[in-house]
Design a protein that fits this description.
Shape: globular
Largest sheet: 10 strands, mixed
Oligomer: single chain
Number of helices: 8
Number of strands: 54
Radius of gyration: 28 Å
Length: 730
C-alpha cells in the first residue's frame, strides 16, 4: 500500500522530471498483467531505447494505479459506413491538467492512408477543436511527427495536433473535436480514432483509453464468384457466391434470387440468406477452361468466377494468405506482430501466425507459421516453418535453413522479386508466397492484392503443400499456372543435367502479354505473346525497382509516382484504355485532344501500363513521352538513401523503331534506372498459352529456374523455383 502511494506521488507530482531508469524485463512482467494494454505502450516497452523507457514506465503506472488519469473519450454520430464521408464528433476529458505548450492529438490509423487536416474546411478529413466555454484557453493546430502503432512503422508521419495556449486545460474539463468529411476506411470492421495527449511542453505522448468504433458494410454493389482453379473431369465441387459492397465487404442480402449460369447456360436459381452462399453440385465433363456467372434476376448486378481448368487427374490449386484474413480464400490466418503481443492478447486471438519484428540490426523480420509461446521467442519454436518478409530484410547469417522455407515475393500491391532472388542465390531452397498485408499504407481501399496459390495432390493439406514449397504467387488475380523443369514441379530440387527443359501452360484471367524464363535471377528467354508490329495499339509500360540502394541489406526503396502525358506526332489517338488501373486515387488516364493522353500512376517493384490506339502508323511519326518532375514516397526511410526527387524527363520514340519491335528506355533516378517500355501489341492476346523453353547453357554447381507471367492488365505471377544441382543445408 505504501509502495503504491509513493509510486502514485512520483508519477503525478513530477511528470516532466526524469525518474530512475526503468528495467525492460520488470516493465514487461507488469505489462503482461494487464488485460488490454494500448498497442503504443506495448511496442514502446518492447522496442524503445533504454533512455526512453521511463516515459512508458509512467504510462504503465497510470494504467495500473490510476487509469482515470488518462481521461475519457466519447464518440457521436455513428454508425460509420465503409467508404463513406461522414461527420464525427469526439469529446475528450483529460484526467490531469494539460499545461500551456501541452498538446492533444486525435488521429486516424496510419494504414488508412489518410490524415486529419486543419487547413481547408472544404476538403476531406477536416478537424477542428474547441475548449469548453468555461475554459480560458485556445487550441492552436500545429504539425508534429507521430510514430508508433498509430503513427507508422518506419519514420512515423506528420499529423495535426492541437497545442494548449493561454490557461491550462484542467482535469475533467471537456475538449471537443469535430471531423468533417471523414473518409471512413473501405474495410468493414473495427476502427480506431485514438486520442493522445502531452501534459506539458516537450513531453511525450500518453494515450487515452481506446474506444472501438465499428464500420459496417455498404449496399450491394457486386457479386464475387469463387470456384476451384483446377478440377478433375466429372469431379463434383462447389462454388462460393459472395455478395459485396463496392469495397469487397460481405454485405446484407438485398436480392430475392440469383441465377447461376455455367458456360453461358442456365443451371439453377438460388435464394441467398446470407452474404456468403455455397452452391453445391457443380460438375464438368469436358476438359478445358470453364466460367460460372451469377447475376440478379434482371442482370443488373453480376459476377464471373475465376477460370476453372478441368483436366484428368486430381491435382488442385487452393488459394491462401498466411497473414491476412480473407473470406474468399481456401486458407487464411491473421498474424500479429510480436511488438504488439502480450499473453492475454494472444490467447484471446486464438490460433494465428505471428510476425517476429526484428529490425535490420537484429536479423530482419519473419512470419512464424504457428502459435505463440509464453516467451514469444522464435528460438523456442524449432519445428515451426518461417517466411522471410521483405520490409525488414533478414541477415543471411542469422538464418536457420531448416526453418526458413518460404519467402514473400509480393505484399499488398508491391513486389520484391529482388529479395526472393537474394535468398535463392544464397542457396536457400524456398517457395514463394504473397499477401494482401503490407507495411505500406494503402492509398484507397479498393485494390487487388497479392495471393498465394498452393498446388496440392489428392488428399494433401495446404500445410503440407507449403512445406513442400509447391506454390506460386499472383499480384491479385487467380491465374492457373503449371510449370516444370525436366518434369520436376516448383519447390523441388533435382540432379544436375546438361539440358534443362522448362515447360508448362498458363490459364490467365486476361490476355497474356509475355512469359519469362528466369535463371539465377536473370531473364534468359521470353515468349512474347502480345507483341504485334502490325498492330496500331501502343502499350506504354512503366517499372520501378523496390530493391535497396546498391543491393545493401537495407529497407526497400520507396514506391514512385509517374505523372505526364503521351503525345503522338504524324497520327491521331483514337482510343485509350488502362485495364491495369485499379486504384482511382493514384491511377488515372484521360485523352486530352486528338493527339495527347494524360496519365498518373504508381509503381513499387511492379509494372503499370496503359494503351493508346493510333489512327495510322507512318514511319516518319514520333511518339513523345513527357514526365513531370515528381517524388518517391516517404513511407520508408532507408539508411543509405532518402526518398528522391524525380527529375522531369522527355522521351522521343520514332514509330519506325516501334515497327521493328519493343523499345525500352531507362530513366535515371538518383542511383536507380527505372524502365519505360513502348510496344505495339495485340489487345486481344489469348488468355491461355503453353510454353517450352530449353536451356543448354553451361551449368553451375547449383542453378534455379522459375517462370514469371505478365498479363495485359498488369497482373503478374511468379512460380516457386526448381533448383537444379546443389544440395539442401542439413
Amino acid at each position: 500500500m505504501i509502495r503504491s502511494f509513493l509510486l502514485t506521488v512520483l508519477l503525478f507530482s513530477s511528470m516532466s522530471a526524469p525518474s530512475i531508469a526503468a528495467d525492460r524485463g520488470t516493465l514487461l512482467n507488469r505489462l503482461y498483467q494487464l488485460n488490454n494494454p494500448p498497442p503504443d505502450l506495448i511496442a514502446g516497452i518492447k522496442t524503445s531505447a533504454p533512455q526512453n523507457l521511463d516515459h512508458y514506465a509512467q504510462w504503465l503506472e497510470a494504467l495500473q494505479l490510476q487509469p482515470e488519469w488518462l481521461g475519457q473519450v466519447r464518440y457521436r454520430n455513428e454508425p460509420l459506413v465503409a467508404g463513406s464521408r461522414q461527420t464525427l464528433e469526439v469529446s475528450f476529458r483529460p484526467g490531469t491538467d494539460i499545461e500551456p505548450g501541452g498538446r492533444i492529438l486525435l488521429t486516424t490509423g496510419w494504414q488508412s492512408g489518410s490524415s486529419l487536416q486543419a487547413t481547408d474546411p472544404q476538403s476531406g478529413n477536416y478537424i477542428r477543436a474547441e475548449a469548453g466555454e468555461s475554459i480560458a484557453t485556445d487550441l492552436m493546430p500545429v504539425s508534429t511527427r507521430f510514430k508508433g502503432a498509430f503513427g507508422g512503422w518506419f519514420n512515423g508521419r506528420v499529423v495535426t495536433a492541437f497545442e494548449v495556449t493561454g490557461a491550462p486545460v484542467r482535469a475533467g474539463e471537456e475538449v471537443s473535436f469535430q471531423i468533417r468529411n471523414l473518409t471512413v476506411p473501405g474495410q468493414a470492421g473495427p476502427m480506431y480514432l485514438p486520442v493522445f495527449f502531452s501534459p506539458g511542453p516537450g513531453q511525450d505522448w500518453f494515450g487515452a483509453p481506446l474506444v472501438e468504433l465499428m464500420v459496417r458494410p455498404g449496399e450491394l454493389n457486386r457479386i464475387q464468384v469463387v470456384g476451384p482453379s483446377r478440377l478433375g473431369r466429372n469431379q463434383t465441387t462447389s462454388i462460393k457466391v459472395i455478395l459485396e459492397d463496392q469495397f469487397g465487404n460481405p454485405t446484407s442480402v438485398t436480392t430475392p434470387a440469383l441465377d447461376v449460369i455455367v458456360d453461358g447456360a442456365f443451371l439453377s436459381r438460388i435464394n441467398p440468406v446470407d452474404a456468403v452462399t455455397t452452391v453445391e453440385g457443380i460438375q464438368f465433363s469436358e476438359p478445358g477452361r470453364h466460367l460460372i456467372e451469377v447475376r440478379t434476376g434482371g442482370g443488373g448486378t453480376r459476377g464471373q468466377s475465376n477460370p476453372i481448368v478441368v483436366q484428368s487427374g486430381s491435382r488442385q490449386v487452393l488459394w491462401a494468405d498466411l497473414h491476412n484474413n480473407n473470406h474468399s480464400l481456401d486458407y487464411s490466418a491473421s498474424a500479429l506482430h510480436d511488438s504488439y503481443l502480450t499473453p492475454s492478447i494472444w490467447q484471446s486471438a486464438g490460433h494465428a501466425n505471428w510476425v517476429s519484428d526484428a529490425g535490420l540490426k537484429q536479423g530482419g523480420s519473419r512470419l512464424i507459421l504457428g502459435n505463440w509461446t509464453r516467451t514469444g521467442s522464435s528460438i523456442d519454436l524449432p519445428d515451426l516453418p518461417q517466411v522471410a518478409l521483405p520490409f525488414y530484410p533478414i541477415d543471411l547469417r542469422s538464418v536457420d535453413a531448416n526453418r526458413l522455407q518460404l519467402v514473400e515475393i509480393a505484399s499488398g500491391d508491391s513486389a520484391f522479386e529482388w529479395y526472393a532472388n537474394r535468398l535463392f542465390k544464397a542457396g536457400f531452397r524456398l517457395g514463394v508466397t504473397g499477401s494482401a498485408s503490407s507495411l505500406l499504407p494503402p492509398i484507397g481501399p479498393d485494390q487487388s492484392s497479392a495471393l498465394t496459390a498452393v498446388m496440392l495432390e489428392a488428399g494433401q493439406s495446404i500445410e503440407a503443400g507449403l512445406k513442400q514449397r509447391a506454390t506460386y504467387v499472383t499480384s491479385g488475380n487467380r491465374a492457373v499456372i503449371h510449370a516444370s523443369v525436366n518434369g520436376a514441379l516448383p519447390g523441388r530440387r533435382i540432379a544436375s543435367s546438361q539440358s534443362r527443359s522448362v515447360s508448362g501452360w498458363v490459364q490467365g484471367t486476361a490476355g497474356i502479354e509475355r512469359i519469362d524464363l528466369i535463371k539465377n535471377g536473370e531473364v534468359v528467354d521470353t515468349l512474347n505473346v502480345a507483341g504485334d508490329t502490325q498492330s496500331q495499339i501502343l502499350k506504354v509500360s512503366m517499372y520501378s525497382s523496390s530493391s535497396p540502394y546498391l543491393g545493401q541489406r537495407d529497407f526497400p526503396r520507396n514506391g514512385r509516382e509517374w505523372i505526364g502525358y503521351v503525345k503522338a506526332s504524324g497520327t491521331n489517338i483514337t482510343e485509350v484504355s488502362a485495364p491495369g488501373f485499379r486504384n482511382s486515387t493514384r491511377q488515372a488516364v484521360a485523352q486530352n485532344g486528338s493527339s495527347r493522353v494524360d496519365f498518373i500512376t504508381w509503381t513499387h517493384g511492379t509494372e503499370s501500363s496503359f494503351m493508346v490506339t493510333l489512327a495510322n502508323l507512318v514511319e516518319e511519326g514520333v511518339v513523345e513521352l513527357n514526365l513531370r518532375a515528381g517524388h518517391e514516397d516517404g513511407d520508408i526511410v532507408p539508411a543509405l538513401r532518402t526518398s528522391a526527387v524525380i527529375p522531369a524527363d522527355r522521351q522521343m520514340v520514332p514509330i519506325f523503331d516501334l515497327l521493328q519491335g519493343p523499345v525500352e528506355r531507362r530513366v535515371k533516378v538518383n542511383g536507380y534506372e527505372d524502365t519505360i517500355r513502348f510496344e505495339l501489341v495485340n489487345q486481344d492476346a489469348p488468355d491461355y498459352m503453353t510454353f517450352n523453353f530449353t536451356d543448354m547453357s553451361p551449368e553451375s554447381v547449383e542453378d534455379y529456374y522459375y517462370i514469371r507471367v505478365q498479363q495485359m492488365d498488369d497482373y503478374r505471377a511468379w512460380t516457386s523455383p526448381v533448383f537444379v544441382g546443389g544440395f539442401d543445408a542439413p
